[in-house]
Amino acid sequence: MDQHLKELDEECAQYRELLDSLKEGNDARLMDRNIVAAKLAAMKNEEASLIGESKKLEAEEAKLDAELKKKKNELYAENESAELLWRVFRDNHRQLIRMEMKEQDLEAEVHCLKSQRDRLSKINVLNTAFHIWKQGSFGTINGFRLGQLPHSQVEWSEINAAWGQVALLINTWERILQTLADCLDIQFTLYRIVPVGSHSFIHCL
């Protein structure tokens, strides 16, 4: 009987030990569940925080994209404006170069005309057209002798040509004087020289 009670006590002790171990295991598992639940809650909170941060970053990205697009449009407009201004500048510069070249050409032409004017202003037109000089004992006009001497005969054709030149010279002067006379309201009423080369003559008015 005592032996049987002893065995029962031993079995009870073993049951208690087993029950205590099971109880400790349940407490450990319960503790693990609490830890897992806490970690899960923390992870959910972190996930929610990350989702919120992600949405915030997406909104910021959208805002930055809008600003970037706006800046690109402004830059494109500025580039277009700069290109237009550059084209206008190049056109104006080319036009300025053409005008400067034209001005230089005009200045060169004016200089040339002034040189010609100065040269022509020094020329006596009548003296150039009717060169009066002498050849020995003879007076000459344009190389034609104006008469003859007993010791030096001159062809009448040369003499007539010389006096034809004189008639033309006088007629030229007459035209100049007539212009002055018209201004002064004066009329020549006696004679008029008609220059026709070697056959020039004086016409009575």
Automatic annotation (TrEMBL):
Molecular function GO labels: phosphatidylinositol 3-kinase binding; protein-macromolecule adaptor activity
Keyword tags: Coiled coil
GO cellular component terms, semicolon-separated: phagophore assembly site; phosphatidylinositol 3-kinase complex, class III, type I; phosphatidylinositol 3-kinase complex, class III, type II
Family note: Belongs to the beclin family.
Short name of one Pfam family: APG6
Name of the protein: Atg6 BARA domain-containing protein
A GO biological process held by the record: late endosome to vacuole transport
Atg6 BARA domain mapped to chain residues: 120-204
Coiled-coil blocks: 5-123
InterPro entries associated with the record: Atg6/Beclin, Atg6/Beclin_C_sf, Atg6/beclin_CC, Atg6_BARA
Ranges of residues in domain Atg6/beclin coiled-coil: 1-115
